[in-house]
Amino acid sequence: MLSNDIQEILVSADQIQHRVKELGEAISRDYQDKEPILVSILKGAVFFLSDLARAISIHISLDFMAISSYGDSQKTSGVVRILKDLDEIITGREVLIVEDIIDTGLTLRYLLNNLEARKPASLKICTLLDKPFRRIVKLPIAYQGFEIPDKFVVGYGLDYKQRYRNLPFIGVLKPELLEDR
Ligand code: 5GP
Asked: What is the secondary structure of 29-61 as a DSSP string?
């Protein structure tokens, strides 16, 4: 069974659902009378996005980007290739980036610069998980679900070699399952 590969659960399914509700309420309050566009990065963040969107009680729209890091998929260089760009034009729109995890911050910094150039009315970040210990670039995080230690986590959208995304919680893999990490 999938969960047999997990050494430790860092954030339980209940904790996630409770926090996502709170984030949805905060976003609904902060963007009252506005209609933000939630921009999510495929594929990891879509689990979070789909729960978060349903916890938001104002009008929103959704859009997606797909990116790929150059080189080793487990280490970020910050230089990303855009595989799928947004469908919508975001100029003058309120944009909220919905991310699963921020580690060094390099990936998101690159995306922020890219999206800022399109002159949105506002551009904010909502991340489920924040690993601040390895942060290289400062990022303005408006909404954060949980701060977690510097461990490689899987579940609730986060993968290891494309597996484990469908775990309902955030956990740490047994070390013997991790190659060269
Ligand atoms: P950053 O550019 O902030 O260092 O890295 C961000 C990306 O690296 C995330 O979007 C995610 O794809 C990946 N990443 C960073 N930490 C983890 C982790 O603990 N688990 C998984 N599965 N991916 C991670």
From this structure: HHTTT---EEEEEETTTHHHHHHHHHT--S--E
In the block, tokens 């904010």 appear at 124
Does 103 qualify as catalytic in the annotation? yes
CATH of 16-148, one of 3.40.50.300, 3.40.50.2020, 3.40.1080.10, 3.40.190.10: 3.40.50.2020
Q: Which atom of ligand 1 is nearest to the CA of 136?
A: 4
Q: What's the pTM?
A: 0.94
> What is the band of 181 on the pLDDT scale with cuts at 50, 70, 90?
low
- Say which residue the tokens 């659960």 belong to: 9
pLDDT digits (tens, 9 = 90+) for 125-158: 999 999 999 999 999 999 999 999 999 999 999 9
